[in-house]
Specification:
256 residues, DNA oxidative demethylase ALKBH2, binds fe (ii) ion, alpha+beta, 8-stranded antiparallel sheet, broad specificity oxidative DNA demethylase activity, 34% strand, globular, 4 helices, binds 2-oxoglutaric acid, methyltransferase activity
């Protein structure tokens, strides 16, 4: 078994078309997926793997708690506006197709594509979610990047979170709240160029209250994206908890 897909609901015809327009994938049956229970909390984990890809997926919060956390974040989180909500590509300024915020330990900074985003101090809700992730995984985090997608038009393009200031021993822990969205991994050798290889993408759905761990070396070999899904009418908040090594701090994610 080398590929997984995790689906939580039946798709409409339009959604099926959107999936089919991306490359096909091999599906596995739920019962083929390994369930890991090696972390401190007895929540069931699904492991999915491919060449150079190692991720763990779980439902961290039940619907009631996920709803509550989503609503609290809608009250609490202050997103960047103005120049801080834009990126620079070859000297031109572009608006990011989503809203972003960064929180974390004092003095931490996140930089990409010409913007430098200072971490705001943790809020109580963010501390609560961070601590739940730590309890479930055994890993500690000093920074979170928050992306808010107002509907299915908001998205994030293919990129890797492979910056040298991220501690490779610590997975990137991605918590999703709100609308279910598709999430796609593509191997770097399956993208473009003369050495392009036939490696199937890995597609999954990130559910309300879910936790996805991207373990080393996933972000070395695989790009990921949250594509446009026009049928999605409701918002989603994603929190990627990270561990930044302070004295290595320089840049953040690179958008390509
Ligand atoms: O919204 C997501 O699920 C992904 C966000 C992401 O890739 C990132 O913050 O680097
Ligand atoms: Fe990312």
């Amino acid at each position: 078994m080398d590929k997984f897909v995790i689906r939580h609901r039946k798709r409409s015809a339009v959604e099926e078309d959107e999936w089919k327009s991306e490359e096909p994938i091999k599906k596995c049956q739920e019962d083929e997926c390994e369930v890991e229970e090696e972390f401190s909390q007895p929540i069931p984990w699904q492991k999915f793997e491919a060449e150079g890809l190692d991720c763990d997926y779980s439902l961290l919060f039940d619907k009631e708690e996920a709803d509550r956390l989503f609503n609290q974040l809608e009250e609490e989180v202050v997103y960047f506006t103005g120049d801080k909500a834009k990126i620079q590509v070859y000297g031109k300024s572009y608006s990011v197709p989503r809203k972003q915020a960064t929180y974390g330990d004092e003095g931490l900074m996140y930089s990409f594509s010409g913007v430098h985003l200072q971490a705001k101090p943790w809020t109580p809700t963010l501390e609560h979610i961070r601590d739940a992730v730590t309890k479930a995984t055994g890993h500690t985090f000093n920074f979170v990047l928050i992306n808010r997608y107002k509907n299915g038009h908001d998205h994030i393009g293919e990129h890797r979170d492979d910056e040298r200031e991220l501690d490779p021993a610590c997975p990137i822990a991605s918590v999703s709240l709100g609308a279910v969205r598709d999430f796609i991994f593509r191997h770097k050798d399956a993208r473009t160029g003369s050495s392009k290889r036939q490696i199937e993408p890995v597609k999954l759905e990130l559910a309300h209250g879910s936790l996805l761990l991207m373990n080393y070396p996933t972000n070395t070999y695989w790009y990921h994206s949250l594509p446009v899904r026009k049928k999605v009418k409701t918002p989603r908040i994603n929190l990627t908890f990270r561990r930044i090594v302070k004295n290595r701090q320089k840049t953040g994610i690179k958008m390509e």
